[in-house]
Amino acid sequence: MQGIIHLSDLHIGYPGCTEAARKIVGQIIRKITPPGKHVIVITGDLVENAFSTEQQREAARQVKRFKKAGFKVLCAPGNHDCGTGVFGSKELAAAFRKRFLGSAQAKFPKLNVIEGAAFIGLDSMADELNWHDRVFAEGELGERQLMKLELMLKSARVQKCQWKLVYLHHHPFSPLFLNELKAAESLEKIIAGRVDALLFGHNHLGGVHNGRWGIPRCYDGGSSTGKEGAPREIRLIMLPLPPETDVLLPFC
Q1: How many CB atoms lie within 10 A of CB 174?
Q2: Tens digit of each residue's pLDDT (9 = 90 or more) over 211-244
Q3: CATH code, domain with 183
Q4: 148 HSE (CA, 13 A, CB side)
């Protein structure tokens, strides 16, 4: 594996974002080689409104373009992938899993081992779709998912990997009112100093938080399509090399 490309918050369906997403996919396919040696990680909010079937289909078409070109693609759900962004639905969350993970029954944490690297995807909407808290834009991993994550990190399959990466949608470090990852400190207790990279999005802030929680690489993907002027931080992560070698893709 030569690199990881981190995309986040595409918001396909929002004015300007659909065309921007198509261009980004096309540019990456044309300019990043070989595709089979690169992994695309998308940390949520592929669509603007998951109630729109067409937005879901368009997002799936773009992911399919990556896969057809030979890239491996990993996706974590965001709040907009499960509803409007401030109102979520378990049915739409299941539709996301079916469309982008292959099965409505797909479980998180989601482990993919690729060339010696353990990619662990988390669902930060897992406990945020109950009747009493499915509004607003907060995220919650839930005790069950956190317990599974703890066990997964201890598993022989993960322990054998040279690299360990965790990716999710909600921003774990910079809580914003009604947009925060609830109980982020519980996630910190589990992964602090135990993984090599933490990738996320949601707040559209962009930025580098390397070293937080004792994790060498911590990246906020901003909004890859630049929704409402947000930072477009499309980063190529050169995992075998130190963080100083990671770069923003200038052509996207």
Answers
A1: 15
A2: 999 999 999 999 999 999 999 999 999 988 999 9
A3: 3.60.21.10
A4: 15
The total number of structural domains that make up the chain: 1
Cross-strand pairs, 5: 40, 236
The rounded radius of gyration (Å) of the Cα atoms in the chain is: 16
State both tokens at 102. 């292959």
Please tell me the distance from the alpha carbon of residue 28 to that of residue 41, in angstroms, as a whole number. 13
pLDDT tens-digit profile of 12-47? 999 999 999 999 999 999 999 999 999 999 999 999
Q: Which residue is it, tokens 């399959």? A: 157
Q: What are phi and psi of 47, to 5 degrees?
A: -120, 165
Burial grade of 43 (CB within 10 A; 0-12, 13-18, 19 or more): buried
What is the rounded CA–CA span in Å between residue 74 and residue 39?
8
The residue among 90, 175, 81 whose CA lies nearest residue 134 is 90
Sheet hosting strand 217-220, strand order edge to edge: 110-114, 117-121, 163-167, 197-200, 217-220, 207-208
Both tokens of 166, joined, read 């965790």
Please tell me whether residue 219 adopts helix, strand or coil conformation.
Answer: strand
Name the residue range of residue 94's domain: 3-248
Instruction: Say whether 241 sits in a helix, a strand or coil.
Output: coil
Do residues 101 and 122 lie in contact, with contact meaning Cβ atoms separated by under 8 Å?
no
pLDDT above 80: residue 137: no
Please give the single-letter amino acid code of residue 237: I
Whether a cis peptide bond, with omega within 30° of 0, leads into 109 is yes
The mean pLDDT of 78-97, rounded to a whole number, is 94
The answer to whether the CB of 176 falls within 8 A of the CB of 137 is: no
What would the two tokens of residue 2 be? 């030569």
Q: What DSSP character marks residue 47?
A: B
